[in-house]
Amino acid sequence: MAFDRQITLAITGASGAPYALRLLELLVRANCQVFVLISSAAKVVLATEENLQIPAKPDAAAAWLIERYQAQPEQIRVFGKDEWFSPVASGSAAPKQMVVCPCSTGTLSAIAVGASDNLIERAADVVLKERGQLLLVPREMPLSSLHLENMLKLSNLGATIMPASPGFYHQPQSIQDLVDFVVARILDHLDIDQQLMARWGYQGAASK
């Protein structure tokens, strides 16, 4: 089966696992092939916030996620932090779009200085150098001057900073509504059609 596009999704150790899981679900529905990178800290957060135990080995994790989201074979591929021969590590093969959701401030800092000490950092560095689309979804408060300086630096480099700050004009009735607000905005920026939330000024409830 041909996929409409490829997208890299990195999940790091900030609070906000529901955002990442919902985003992955909808990327699969949109017929995207998703290259998933999960940090060790993210696995702790996923277990804490969602009671999910992601298999340690990348192939097992991919099979687990494919079953969970009823994805097509190879639609979700998972790479370990040291898989330097994976497509996301090279500008000649990496998807041109990448989302780090949620994005820890440690990952934010490492990307800002081009550390590339693990595959998440390298993948983000590749997207920046190839002039692709990098979306960073930090979930932290308050923000220190250092955090803000890193965000400004990355914004100036072409990344889009999208704090996980849901709005309320759609009159949310549940936590899921708040999650969907943020995920809908991410999908909008990726230019992927979404029916989670009606845009401002448009009437009618969106279909979920």
Automatic annotation (TrEMBL):
Reaction equations catalysed: dimethylallyl phosphate + FMNH2 = prenylated FMNH2 + phosphate
> Which top-level enzyme class is recorded in the Swiss-Prot or TrEMBL entry?
transferase
Family matches, as InterPro entries: Flavin_trans-like (IPR036551), Flavoprotein (IPR003382), UbiX-like (IPR004507)
Q: Which residues bind FMN?
A: G13, A14, S15, S39, S104, T105, G106, T107, R139
Q: What is its EC number?
A: 2.5.1.129
Gene3D superfamilies, per this entry?
Flavin prenyltransferase-like (3.40.50.1950)
Give the UniProt keywords, A-Z: Flavoprotein, FMN, Prenyltransferase, Transferase
Keyword Transit peptide on entry: no
Q: Which residues form a coiled coil?
A: none
Ranges where the Flavoprotein domain occurs: 6-190
Key word Flavoprotein present in the record?
Answer: yes
Q: Which PANTHER family match?
A: FLAVIN PRENYLTRANSFERASE (PTHR43374), FLAVIN PRENYLTRANSFERASE PAD1, MITOCHONDRIAL (PTHR43374:SF1)
* NCBIfam families linked: PRK06029.1, ubiX_pad
Function statement? Flavin prenyltransferase that catalyzes the synthesis of the prenylated FMN cofactor (prenyl-FMN) for 4-hydroxy-3-polyprenylbenzoic acid decarboxylase UbiD. The prenyltransferase is metal-independent and links a dimethylallyl moiety from dimethylallyl monophosphate (DMAP) to the flavin N5 and C6 atoms of FMN.
Q: What is this protein called?
A: Flavin prenyltransferase UbiX
